[in-house]
Amino acid sequence: MKVISITGGPASGKSFLIDLLSKHCNLYSLEGVITRNDSWAVPLGKTDIVAFDHGFFDHKAIWWCEENNCPLIVAGQGDEEVVEALRLSCPELIELRLERDFGTHIVQLHDGQQVLDLSVEGLMAKVFDLAGVKPVAKPAE
After folding, report:
1. Which of 8, 26, 66, 124 could be joined to 48 by an S-S link, Cβ 3.0–4.6 Å?
2. Which among 81, 22, 64, 71 is positioned nearest to 50, based on CA atoms?
3. Alpha-carbon distances, residue 97 vs 59, 69, 72, 131 (angstroms)
4. Could you give the CA distance from residue 47 to residue 111 in angstroms, rounded to a whole number?
5. Distance between CA atoms of 77 and 75, rounded to whole angstroms?
6. Across-strand partners of 4?
7. What is the pLDDT tens value at each position of the chain, 141 positions in all?
8. In b/e form, how buried is each residue of 40-67, taking b as 16+ CB within 10 angstroms?
9. pTM to 2 decimals?
């Protein structure tokens, strides 16, 4: 199971990226579910990626993702407690940090070893590659 932590400032594009990913795979986003119910709800149907936005996650989601070999993405502003908890729970955590250039619309992706200047499409492709998920064109809703 792949676990990816995506951090960055308030306008770095983390939520936009999750929304964009959802247009190309069966992404189960937990932001609304956790906010409303304050508990993990098992995804119904085919799920390619589970994503938590705004820097929180539920350990039950990690267990479900492990059982179902489903990648997990946790996006947030870099709250050290959340990132440290992920490091402890997921020793092979992939940590990414985003910085967006509003003038050029280029996103800098820091992965701890290198800095890549990517378009939004390039960033999406990189995250799909790291998650091990093949994107598909989904029909418009």
Report:
1. 26
2. 71
3. 22, 24, 16, 15
4. 26
5. 7
6. 73, 94
7. 899 999 998 888 898 999 999 999 999 987 645 555 556 788 888 999 999 887 677 788 889 999 999 999 998 887 777 788 888 888 889 999 999 988 888 999 999 899 999 999 999 999 999 999 999 877 665
8. beebeeebbbbbbbbbbbbeebbebbee
9. 0.88
Provide the edge-to-edge strand list for the sheet that holds 106-110: 27-29, 49-52, 72-76, 3-8, 94-101, 106-110, 115-118
Strand partners, 52: 74
110: β partners: 97, 115
CATH number of 3-131: 3.40.50
By the 8 A CB rule, do 47 and 131 touch? no
